[in-house]
Structures are given as structure tokens and as C-alpha cells.
């Protein structure tokens, strides 16, 4: 109890520092605890979108589970009933348990298929009277249908006739009416006696959107349905098993899928898949392949978040260490007295440990809820420092978040105790000696910590470059190479190392400036230079802190802009233009499957080229919202001939109208506008001119002026002259596909190749072939305007690429949201912590130097000169640190922002990853810096006004 009282009294005496320390701890715990919450929230949103995409793309409900098979042809007769009973028991009892999520609907369907049906008593041989029907039964049918005509069938035969339900479509297909009796026979099993059936009711689903209806409703137009129990009793017994097919269906609630249970669902799916392997049976679970990707996506997102958050985490750790050092410095004399009076290091550490535990306890209570709030706010990010009204991320508090919070609190307690540990070994004599030797070099200067940090960070950069080369050479997935943990902290180590190195140099520069003009400086500036030059160690903490916060803020801003810009560039490059349309071309080719095999074989022998009819092009140029349109021909898998050698493989030929293409296509950011125009001008010089890819040039030593030809199945050799060699071209990826194996003798031979020529030359020397239409929209035009124009003109479109919509999807992509949200948070935290640390330092500095200011005022220094001295001191310490922070931040961005490629494969980095820095982001940082200096001057001026000379002098005498 006495210990607690001492701790509380000490905390109250230093309440400002304790409050600053507590705020730092809360922010740190909130940031770190938010990481697992954010990962789960982002992946949950991604999971929801992917589940919705399953339904949109395939028509299946996302929780669709269907096991179906042939019960007749692939199973021996005496084993059919036993196998069915085993399957039925397993699918009814074990599958729901193994799935681990509730189901919204369930159904079983059995049938006897391809039965011959004739009217009862019919003796003729008219083929029109013979029908093919399936007799089936489905569980729980009555609850999901409405009888629109007739009645429900009986659950037992009526006068030897089985009553059935049919759809309106079935009545029409069978050319019959309700109440008419038919005789159904099985042509596959002679032992089965003819069955008499009679449709007595017409049904329709109560709700066609009901998950119970897992099959296409039109399939019931060939079926008659009877009571399920009656079907099982009479046609699925040990002695008479005639069912030909069975289906077991569940509609699992996909909204219950989460990162917590998809592991269980997939494990259950694997067990079920292995258990239900029988000839003629298949299992449909469309969600399984999507869910299997989430383990990798989770790892990629965690890696990305750690890489983005690590600089801020280390910065917060440094902030806690700095504030704790301020606090310990104020209490060093008390610690020294306790040490001299017999207190050992352990007892002193215990006091501060209790204090740290109290602060950590408060941080653990407040941090995770704050982290949850941050996650919800970050879900509204639409870009770096951009927010829109958007549905909040589906985040919830989890035990893992508190585990992260507890570990982070423990780490920060250690950071708090480090200054105490070093101070606890100091006696009162040592303390007086330290105060007398304040100009002694600090430990990091003596042991060259700055050089060590720079060496480690540069090694991290080397490791990254080596990793990227391995990815490019092997064409491997990024996830296949292990990530060195050093990559996460390399940028922060570089910031700290560069900051310390420049701080080592700054005092020397100030002394030189002081010596050069020592007779010219005003008293305030003279005193300031003297103090900063001789007592630079007093400003080191502040300067290092400001360098770190500002550099990390700039790094976060540049990283966010770089990732966003590169992602958008990849979309634009892959698409090629605002819109790319493939119109429908009429041709003389027979429809697929319309010819018998002999006719197809004969056509292959004749090899007549397909003749196309070109649709009108002019309507595209007049579409509302379209500024310009051009024709672009693209053909993959072409044969390139050079020096009598045929080059196949992954080769593409493109034919363009050079001037139109230059105005409409997206220019790759890596190519300057002048180079882009010069390439296009080369095509305009000569109709047969060609641009070839550098991969083709290096693989086969093709140079400018060489002749090549391009051909494919419907195209004879097209002779061309090489006029230029290009590295990148819209829509073309020069990187080998992931997983490809390069030729060890000539690695470029496995690379993709490209040949670009003139469209007019190509069309003059070949029959007309389908081309794409590339469109450039007007600046204010929307996709909706273009879509409306296409509908109004009744244009037949086979496919369309819309870059605007792809960019919108990119911004809504959960990974992109995660990047923007995290970087925005990091930038804001950096600026807030920077401001907090800055004000805290100068407030503490002023209170510690009250006696010094009192003496200066007493010897005649005016208040204005005193304020001027403080302003100069801020500029020479904080101002210089801020400038260094900007320089280090920009340098760090250039060197280490490319490390965010660690989650991408080399083949995905097209165009190449490049660092982007926007002036608007820099202005925000500069605004914060100027604001900090102004706030600092205002606070210091206010505190100086409150300073009383007599009290300061009296305090100094005491």
C-alpha cells in the first residue's frame, strides 16, 4: 500500500509527463490492437463481395452445396440400396456438423430417369404418343409450392395408380391434361413392372427466389413428382431399387462465413470430398475455391500491414522512450539519493514497474475500443487522406486484438523502464559528476550507432533487391519466397540512422557559422548559437524525434500515393484506353457443334479462311461522351519469321493507326511523352514499319533495319521492317507468366514477344479481320452516357473493357481500402505525435530553465530579446530537425517505398513500380511543421510572460 501511495504521489507531481506518456501508450495499443481487427474487417468485406460475385457470375447461391450422382449405372444392383442408405445417413447427419455453419434450406431429390410413357390402354405405334419422362420425388415439397390447378397427390397408390404433380410446362410438353392416366416403363431394367401414373395437380413455386429451388425450374418440365416417402417405399427398397439418380442439397448461410469458421468449413469440405468419392458422383461447392484463397490473402494483408505500420510502431516506441527519459531525468536526483541511501536497483525498478503497469492497464482498457473505432473510420477511406460516406467495415472485438494489445503494452513498458534501468545505477556522486560533464559525447556517438543502423538498413535494401531479382528470374509467386523480417524495419532504421548521422554534423556546422560571424550576431542570436553549439546533446532527443516523425509522415504519404498510383497505372496499362469494345462480326463459320464429325474433318482439310463482315465503325465516333475512336487489331499466338527461323511461343501482333492510337491509348508512365511520340512517328514513316519488343530483339539478335514477317492460320506472311525497339506497350505484359521456366541458355526466349505495325498496311495485305474499337471519353463524360448511346444505336457488343468502372472497383477493393486507411492513419498519428512531443519538450525545457531566464532578465535582457532568443533556439534545433526530417523522408521514400512490392509477383509489376510524390502531400507536412513552430513560439511566449524573475532567482538560490 505504501508503494502505491509513493507511486501515485510521484505520478501526480509529474502529471504532465504522465499524461503524455499515457496518451502515447493508448495510441500505441490502439494502433497495434487494430491490426487484427482491420485484417478481419477487410477480409470479411472481401469475402462478402466474393460471395456476391459467385451468385452474379454463376447463378449459384454462395452457400450452395450439392452432391449428386448416378445410382443405377455405376453401382452393382445388389449394392444400390445399401450405398444409398449410407450416403443418405452421412449427408444428413455428418455434413451439417462438418460444415460448421447453419443452413437456410435443405432438400433431397431422387428420380427414375428416361422412362417411356404412353397413355393407358394405348395399343398403336404412333411415335408422337410416346413421351420421355422422369418420375421423381423431392423432400418437403408441399411447403414450397402453390397448387394452381388440381390438388396434392395422395401418399399412396389410388387403384394402383401413382398420383403426381406437374408444372404447366410439363402439361404442355406431354400434350396432356390433369386426370389422364399413363403407363410408364423402364427400358433399362426388364424386372421393373410398368407403372401407372396420373397427374392430378399443377404447381408453381411460392417464391422462385426461395433457396429450396437449387435447380433450374425449367428442368421440372420433363418430370412428374410423387410423394417422397411413397417413392422411397416402392422404388428404393432392398428388393426393388429403381432410382437412377439422387441429389442432396444444402444452402449454407454464407453470411455466417468469417475468418473464424472458414478453416472449419474447408476442413469439413476436404473430409466430405474424400469420403464421397464414388464413380458417377460429383460434389458442387462453388464457395470452396474462393475460401481456400483466404489463408494466402490473410497472410498477404498481414504482411502488408506490418510493413506499413512498423515505422509508426517504432516511432511510438521511441516517443514512449523519450517521454520516459524526460520523466526519469527530472527524477534522477531523487533516484540517486535513494541509491545512496541503500535502495538497490530492483526496488527502484519496482516503483516504476508498478507505475508502468497502472498506465498499461488504462491503455489496455481504452486502446482496443479506440482501435475498433479507428477501423470503422478507416473503412470510409477512398484514397490517401480522402473519406467518403461508405458502409463501415464489419469489425468486431476479438480475443486476438487483446492479445496484440497485451504484447504491445508489455513492449512499451520495457521501453519505459529502459531509462530507469540506466538511471538506477547512479549514485548522488555520479549524478553530480554527470551534471558537470554535460558536454560528454553520448553513448550512440561513442559507439557509432548511426553508422551501424545505416549499415543494417542498407543490407535490408540489398536483401530486397536480391529477392526481387529472384522473383523475376524464377517467375515465382511472391508468396513462394520467404520474407526477411528485416524488410519490415529497414526503412525505420534508415530514418533513425540518417537522423543520428546528420545530428552529429549539425553542431559542427552551427559552431562554424558562430565562429564566422561571432561579432555580427545580436545578443539573443549569439547566446542561442553558443548554447546550441556547446550543449547540442540537450536537443538530441527532440531532434531525433522530430526527424523520425516528419520523415515517417512523408514516407507514409509517399508510400500511399505510390501504391495508389501504381495500382491505377496497372489498370490503365492493362486496359489500354478509356473503353475497349469488341463488336460482333458476322462470318461464314458454322456454329459450334452444328456439323457432324466428317463435315468438320472435311473443313479442316479444305482450310478455307473465314470471311467476316465488318460492322459500321462511324457510330462509335458519334457516341455521346466519346471524344475520339480508333481501330486496334490484336492477335496472340502468332508466328514470327526471322532469317528463316520461325519464332512461336507467346507472341503478339498489334496493328494500330499511329496518330489516333497516340491520342487515345494510355501512355505507360515509364515512357516519357517525347519517346512515346517518337515511337509512333516511326510507324508513320513507312507503311511496313514495325516496332518490336526488347525481349524479341535480345532473344534473336534482331536489330533496327532487319526484316521480319508475321503470320498465323488465316494470315500469310506479312513482311515488315524493324524501325524501333520498345520495352512497354499498352495491354502487353513483357514479363514471363508466373510459374514459367526460363531457358538457361537464352532466358529471353521464354519471354513474351510483341510486334506492332500499321493497321492500313496490315488490312491492305490481308482479308478483313475483327479488330477492337478503342475509345477516349470526353473529360466530363460518364460510362452511363456511353452505355445509353450503345443501347440507343443498338450496337451488338461481344465484350467491353471500361477503365472507369475498373478504377472504381479498385478503390472499393478491400486491399486498397486497407492500404489507404492504414497510410492515412499513420500520417495522422505521425503528425499528432510530432506535435505532442514538440510542445511537451519545450514546456519541460522552459520549466527546467526558469532560473536561466530569470538571470538573463535580471542582467538586462528584454522580454522581446528573450522571446527572440527562444525563436532562434527553436529554428536552430527544431527547425533544423524538421528540414532534416523532410530530406530524410524523401530519401527514405526513394529507397524504401519500392519494398511494398513484397506481396506482388514480378509479372504483376507492369508497368514497373515507381515512387510517386505529390506536392499537395508535402504542403500538408510543411503546414504541420510551420504550425508546430508557431504553436511552440506561442506557448513559450505565454509561459515566459508568466515567469516571475524574483521567484526564478529565489528558486535558483535554493
TrEMBL record:
Keywords: Cell membrane, Membrane, Transmembrane, Transmembrane helix
Cellular component GO terms held in the UniProt record: plasma membrane
Protein location: Cell membrane
Stretches of the chain forming a coiled coil according to its record: none
ABC3 transporter permease C-terminal domain boundaries: 313-422, 827-948
Keyword Ligase listed: no
PANTHER family assigned to the protein according to its UniProt record, in alphabetical order: ABC TRANSPORTER PERMEASE YTRF, MEMBRANE COMPONENT OF TRANSPORTER-RELATED
Stated family: Belongs to the ABC-4 integral membrane protein family.
Name of protein: ABC3 transporter permease C-terminal domain-containing protein
Lineage, uppermost ranks: Bacteria, Bacillati, Bacillota, Clostridia, Thermoanaerobacterales
